[in-house]
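In the current project phase, the collection of sequences with tokenised folds has grown. One resulting record follows, to show the layout:
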Amino acid sequence: MLHIALHFLIPALLAAAIDRKRWLRTWLILIGTMAVDVDHLLAVPVYDPERCSIGFHPLHTTPAIIAYGVLLIGPWVACRVAWCREQSRGRVVQLVGLGLVVHMVLDGIDCLI
């Protein structure tokens, strides 16, 4: 139960720290990334409290986690090497990447316990 609560609490704290004026929008984007857990539906059983998600579910594998990191830093890198026309789109992409990376970190911590 604590694990699930952290998936809502940590993004709320990050949203407040990142963008106080639009914290709700930011928080909704961050928790929207919990949809990554749809890959749990491919497992039998769907939920196993003893199973580590990292490395087991397709969207929780190393290649996927690397892609989430690219989503997080990609727009920042792109804006540094080229002129950015649409920073708000890059911002959303970064928030999605951040949400996914945070999700993987929380799942990874859960695997250690």
